[in-house]
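note to self: dont lose this again. the chain is below, predicted strucutre after it. 294 aa total, dont forget to put it in the shared folder this time
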Amino acid sequence: MDEWVTELAPQLRALVELAAHEGHVTGSASTLGIPQSSMSRRIHALEKALHVPLVVRDGRTVRLTPSAIALADSVRTPLREVEAALTQIADAADPDHGTVRFGFPLTMGSGPVTDLLVDFSRRHPGIHLQLKQAHGAELSDDLRHGRLDLAITIPPPPDLPHRVLATQEICAALPEGHPLTGRPSIRLSELADERFVANPPSYHLRQVTEEWCTTAGFVPEIGIEITQFSTIRDFVRKGLGVALLPRTADRVRGIVEKPIAGGDHTRQIALTSATTTQGPATHRLSTFIVAQRF
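---
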């Protein structure tokens, strides 16, 4: 076992990075901070040790074999846990400094999340924050591949350590003057003939929009796709369709938000970690966020 750990750990790390870069050797080597030739030698050494082919040449890139993909998927999380544990020990001598790679949804570019980050930075000026905004699927993928340490995700990915912070209500956004705006709540079936403005298919809210509408007995007609919620609201305000969106804290001019009756139309907001072991700086940010009533 000692021989496997000491000799194959660098090669396994190289394989995981190669899988993350979809066979691009140059990008994988750059991420690891090693020459491309060293990257190739590590993969070749791993093939030799395991007596299993791991890559097939495909033009300027390489294609991972099924065995290589399965191996990379199996060792990715354990390697990240080891790296996190070593970082925790190394950083423990100076817990007031360090870097945290933190992600949060595009929909939270203003408000509570940015307020929390500003407050944290003022209290812990020695901790450097590298921030990224993206949709939930991308943030979860970045956590799995070690590109982020911590992120707020909607919904929480079941395969990663997480803690639910809050529940987000999804409501129907209608333009002012719409026939249903006078109702205290509406049923999704009443929107069957409407044109919808929605996120692209990879977004979780788009997926649940289609799922909930299908359950209500119809397939929503998606007339416009756009990533930004603010732009979706603008299109709704101008009468180009309706949308299912998170309830806003303040009223948006030209839009009426209505609760959706019949069933649970909510999503969980979670603080998700790349690993179960967190470095001191990451742990401080995580504890800080949980302690604030998000």
